[in-house]
Description:
By secondary structure, the protein is an alpha/beta fold. The protein has 14 helices and 9 strands. The chain has a 7-stranded mixed β-sheet with strand order 5-4-3-6-7-9-8, sandwiched between helices. Strands 1-2 form a two-stranded antiparallel sheet.
Amino acid sequence: MEDFDESRLHALVGKMLGDLGGAYGVPTTRIGFRLGLFEALQEGGPATAAQLAARAGGLAERYVREWALAQAANGYLSYDGDADSFSLSPEQAMIFAVKDSPVYLEGAFDLAAAMIEGEPKVEHGFRTGEGVAWGESAGCLFCAVGAFFRPGYLNNVVANWLPALDGVTDKLRAGGKVADIGCGVGFSTLLMADAFPESEFVGYDFHAPSIAEANAHARAHGVGDRVRFETAAAKDIAERDFDLVTAFDCLHDMGDPRGCARHVRGMIATGGAWMIVEPIAADRPADNMGNPVSRLYYNASTMICVPTSLAQEVGEALGAQAGEAAITGVLNDAGFAHVRRAAEGPFNMILEARA
Ligand SMILES: C[S@@+](CC[C@H](N)C(=O)[O-])C[C@H]1O[C@@H](n2cnc3c(N)ncnc32)[C@H](O)[C@@H]1O
């Protein structure tokens, strides 16, 4: 064995224990979400394992006890050793029980599982250079992605991001036409439609099962024919004259983002705008190191974004951490002369592009 620094090794092993604890917690935490254990604890207050098992609909107490101790060890539940009971602090509840909170993380855990499911196909891609088509790497990658982004969109799109664009909310209040390209299961489209009842919305995505799910969400929302979803690759959208085009966390996933940008340029009405929501990142990879959000995105990009782009024509594979300069370059080359960062959040940067 080579010489090594004992204290640096201890620090790295300590970090690895924390990281592996997070990874080992993925299946138990997902079971807790699916069986409603976090919600039951939140709604009914502190409970012993037996009480929690009964409250969650008659689950097996021995499993629930081990699960609750695991979650307490994770720091996801609080444990009172004297009373042998479990509870959720308000902060833990925001992450594990309150579905509309900006930091509700069920989708993030589902995404971790989807990435593990997709491992053999992505590994094959490493050997061959081939891509893995969207929807082929894991059974419900698209549902997990929708759930992952939903809390951020719900708490930001209408309240912060659209108002940061020049004159867009006035237009949508009066009645405008919006295309949401790469809309996935349609959460972004529907929450904009809810906020702007005078406007018309079309969500487009090339993944038919996502569009089927988006249509089911639309029916549940009761938005009528003001909102529709269509299966179409970004460059094949025939409709024109949109006052606003949106692209939520999808431009970098496309095989041909430059071709898409040129096409969007033709879809926009005079005076209209394109809102591009992309994962936030610094321009230089070195400046993304040590940042926990970049860490998540680089891993997701390896398993999802790069393979899905490589599976398409051109296969530019910008990656989730392309950065503002690279995305702006794509937009400028397509004829969007005016591009600015209109807003940002911990996970996203919001660019406004105009011709
Ligand atoms: C990371 S997901 C984001 C989905 C959704 N916008 C959201 O934020 O939840 C990327 C989406 O881009 C779609 N997509 C990728 N390439 C596409 C293309 N060339 N044309 C249309 N949609 C595409 C995928 O089907 C997927 O729904």
